[in-house]
Amino acid sequence: MIQFFGVTLGGVIADNHITDGNVNHSQHTRDPVARKYGGSMRAVGECYHGPAPLFGLEYLGNHFVRSDGIFLQDNHGPADYQCGGPHGFLGPWIRWAAVRRNSFSGVSLAAKAHADPPACGAVTLSGASSDIVAEHDVFECDGGAVSGGYEGDIAACERCTFRP
After folding, report:
1. pTM of the model
2. Using the 8-state DSSP alphabet, how is residue 145 labeled?
3. Residue-wise pLDDT tens digits, 73-126
4. Which of 11, 94, 110, 116 could form a disulfide with 74 if both were Cys (CB 3.0 to 4.6 A apart)?
5. Cβ pair 66, 109 in contact under 8 A
6. Are 148 and 120 in contact (CB under 8 A)?
7. How far is the CA of 147 from the CAs of 6, 91, 121, 122, 150, in angstroms?
8. Which of 66, 60, 56 is nearest to 137 (CA)?
9. Domain edges within the chain
10. What was the pLDDT predicted at 15?
11. What pLDDT is stored for residue 114 in this prediction?
């Protein structure tokens, strides 16, 4: 797994080829979206011993074959004393991200083992992020699997665009 975890400003993951990239979907027991889609590439923004935002991320031109896709996890709220208490910043922790020109094909072994039916690689958003552009990505899926694409809390994303 390739991951940004908090306090990343302007991070870029580009031009990688991942074949058979599997993420243990069962580890995400509290988040049904994560349990279904996983993510060979992840970004986690949250209040974790202080503010841990992810601003200005880019996922460009990556190729996933029989692999889990890209998972953006915004763990907004509740108020934590380490991030200013009840009147502090609650998120969004992921802002100003671009996900472009990536390709996804096939189903990972982890998805086959932990979901029925399994899901193909996807770009998945969990939580209420803002200002994300995901475009020009290609999704191909095996028969009998849940089609990939843009999944999760897409509707909750403010000022976001998701288009193939």
Report:
1. 0.89
2. S
3. 998 776 677 887 777 777 899 999 999 999 999 999 888 887 788 888 999 998
4. 94
5. yes
6. yes
7. 30, 30, 8, 8, 10
8. 60
9. 2-163
10. 98
11. 78
